[in-house]
Amino acid sequence: GILFFCFSVLKRAFSLHKSHSIKDMENTFQLVKNIIPPLTTKKHKGQDGRIGIVGGCQEYTGAPYFAAISALKVGADLSHVFCTREAAPVIKSYSPELIVHPVLDSPNAVHEVEKWLPRLHALVVGPGLGREDALLENVKGILEASKARAIPVVIDADGLWLIAQQPTLIQGYQKAVLTPNHVEFIRLSEAVLRDPVDSSDRRGAVLRLSQALGNVTVVQKGEQDVISDGEQVLECNLQGSNRRCGGQGDLLSGFLGVLVQWALHAGPEKTNGFSPLLVAAFGACSLTRQCNHQAFQKHGRSTTTSDMIAEIRPAFNRLFET
Ligand SMILES: *[C@@H]1O[C@H](CO)[C@@H](O)[C@H](O)[C@H]1NC(C)=O
């Protein structure tokens, strides 16, 4: 029944207004299913994903927690948080399941994170980061170090603020996924394209931003999520709910960190020639929406991000394992 709630578009950039079929939706879900690694006895801890979240400061401790715990609950084996000294004890106290490094405001933050990079499959940069100059400077160094090691990076929230100031940080890095909301998207587009955004053509606008960034994958979150890798445009509007509690974006970025690594590991033969990051993004958007939908069924107006986290397992099962 899920397909009736879902409407995805998978088509060439230059035929944006063609109609699309149920078959396309089924196919897109099948591609997500293809990248999910089977659980077997042959694996050791860490093989299904070691994810690092870069963010968490004095004001914001919830966002990096939500991203990190979502990564674990979607199936990562280890989830690290690199945050400021003050934020660390707070984030640790939320959960014994996370590995928390109080390094982000230290003078040798880049080195401290770099030490871990060989052991990480993907980084999620931005949840709860804030905009303090010294932190952003450290994050810049962390991004450079990650690119040098070809580690996939998902960039959200104030990580996107940094990219809007310095687009060259990510330009041409095709292992990056940006997840702007409406406001962040406009800021980024205006910084990169130096043109006002044509809000009557969301798909075209997302495609153009992706291309201008050298085909970096862009996920514009909204009533529909619009995803592009500079070639294709894909839309996800699986039914969520009208409840928009803060923190949903953190779930999406945590899911993406894991799915990006699964998709890259599975490779283009499993994604039928489509960009693995595009498939990962579609999977993460669908899952976020399904969690929201299921949580809303139970909690209505009281739905919070923690209620959505409790739905990760059944939502994942419903979408991808049946
Ligand atoms: C981005 O993708 C488009 C469409 O496939 C292609 O024409 C263009 O050359 C690509 N740009 C880069 C920088 O790879």
TrEMBL record:
Q: Name one GO molecular function term.
A: ATP-dependent NAD(P)H-hydrate dehydratase activity
Where mainly located? Answer: mitochondrion
Which InterPro entries does UniProt cross-reference here? CARKD (IPR000631), Ribokinase-like (IPR029056)
State where the protein is found: Mitochondrion
Reaction(s) catalysed by this chain's protein = (6S)-NADPHX + ATP = ADP + phosphate + NADPH + H(+); (6S)-NADHX + ATP = ADP + phosphate + NADH + H(+)
Q: Which Gene Ontology biological process is one annotated for this entry?
A: metabolite repair
The enzyme class is lyase
SUPFAM superfamilies in UniProt: Ribokinase-like
Q: What family is this? A: Belongs to the NnrD/CARKD family.
**UniProt protein name:** ATP-dependent (S)-NAD(P)H-hydrate dehydratase
Species this chain originates from? Myotis lucifugus (Little brown bat)
- Gene encoding the protein: NAXD
